[in-house]
Specification:
Helix content is about 40%, strand content about 15%. By secondary structure, it is α/β, with parallel strands linked by helices. It binds pyridoxal-5'-phosphate. The site of pyridoxal-5'-phosphate has 14 residues, from helix 3 and helix 4.
Length: about 375
């Protein structure tokens, strides 16, 4: 009898479920070993934790591949390592990378500072309009987008971009860290490779740095080859923590989605907040795209405070439950100011042009009781 595809929670909890033998542990044991016995005279794959084939690394990879609907996945030591290795897999010196200008600042720096140094030219283009098409060159080899974007939570329509990439033979890489495979699966819309900072929602508990790439078995094997050579492996204990975090990914995301929406609706009504960016709001420019391509709008909310940077700092000083910290996607509410974190390298004018003026704060709405989160922001704004 044909097996029904498994739901996301079952995939995340069991990987590919098999009946366990009597006495078998219910959770994957931590295999905190750098190396493994190699059969003498054997030609089997060498097991070595830097190679990404430690049992804990393989368990999380299996689960992510199932969730993304990918042939294969691989976990590495950080989201930045995942982005770097995924791109180095497909790009060579002389190639051109066409990247979205709506990016996490660290990714942008990797492209402009490091890739250019390796002889890979990079253009940043607006993938929210058709403008990006004009940047395709003869030597363009790959297109990179992040969706939803950091920090404005804009949602890119992947399908038309994927269609043109297919027509022109370009590889499409998509960072869906903000969405997770629970809210969106980019491969379903024609992406070739999906990248995650597993540091964020995938692990979900702000206690691990990790990253992952999912896609075809062939390309993931090439990422593995580069992982062996460049070396940014995920530690087995960290992989074990990610596996534990992933087991609750679907329920956490359901709560992040609900809390994000409730927080955004509160923020819209607040007299000291001039604008709110959350794709669940009907007036968000990508509300329709998000509705058509995502299963949930997520827990990331951008708020513009009247009174600029001073107002933001005053509010941040008075928050008691939410913490002022970079990063996102954990169970606890975190607030960051792109002005001093992810977009600190840009001038105030450049940030303004990107729609993140001083006074903009990014809220990663956690899974606390949402009324408590809202009350915390209410009192912090009143205390100014
Ligand atoms: N991609 C996105 C969208 C991010 O927000 C981040 C970090 O904030 C990264 C990638 C890099 O991830 P990591 O910090 O795990 O290296």
């Amino acid at each position: 009898m044909k097996r029904q595809p498994l739901g996301p929670s079952t995939c995340a909890i069991h990987g590919s479920p098999e009946r366990l033998s009597d006495g078998a542990p219910i959770t994957t044991p931590i295999v905190q070993s750098s190396t493994f016995i190699n059969p003498v005279g054997g030609a089997d794959e060498v097991l070595y934790t830097r190679y990404g084939n430690n049992p804990n690394q393989l368990e999380v990879a299996k689960r992510l591949a199932a969730l993304e609907g990918a042939e294969a996945a691989i976990f590495v030591g950080s989201g930045m390592a995942a982005t770097a290795l995924a791109h180095l897999t497909v790009l060579r010196p002389g190639d051109h990378l066409l990247a979205s200008k709506w990016l996490y600042g660290g990714t942008q720096d990797l492209f402009t500072d490091e890739f250019e140094r390796l002889g890979i030219s990079v253009s940043l283009a607006d993938v929210l309009t058709d403008e990006w098409r004009r940047h395709i060159r003869k030597n363009t080899r790959a297109v990179f987008i992040e969706t939803p974007t950091n920090p404005l939570v804009r949602v890119v329509n992947i399908e038309p971009i994927a269609a043109l990439c297919r027509e022109k033979g370009l590889v499409l890489l998509v960072d869906t860290t903000f969405a997770t495979p629970i809210n969106m699966r980019a491969l379903e819309f024609g992406a070739d490779l999906v990248i995650h900072s597993a540091t964020k929602y995938i692990n979900g508990h702000s206690d691990v740095i990790g990253g992952a790439v999912a896609g075809s078995a062939e390309v993931i094997e090439e990422v593995r080859r580069l992982l062996k050579l460049w070396g940014p492996a995920l530690d087995p204990h960290a992989a074990w923590l990610v596996e534990r975090g992933m087991k609750t990914l679907a329920v956490r995301m359901a709560r992040h989605n609900a809390n994000g929406m409730a927080f955004a609706e509160w923020a819209v009504e607040h007299p000291q907040i001039s604008a709110v960016s959350h794709p669940g709001l009907e007036d968000h420019p990508d509300h329709d795209v998000a509705g058509a391509t995502m299963d949930g709008f997520g827990g990331m909310v951008g708020i513009h405070l009247k009174g600029g940077a001073k107002a933001a700092e005053q509010m941040l000083q008075h928050l008691r439950i939410a913490s002022h910290a970079p990063s996102l996607g954990g169970v606890e509410t975190l607030v960051s100011e792109p002005r001093v974190t992810s977009h600190a390298r840009l001038s105030a004018t450049e940030r303004q042009a990107l729609g993140i003026p001083d006074g903009f704060v990014r809220v990663s709405v956690g899974i606390e009781d949402v009324q408590d989160i809202i009350s915390d922001f209410d009192q912090a704004l009143a205390a100014r």
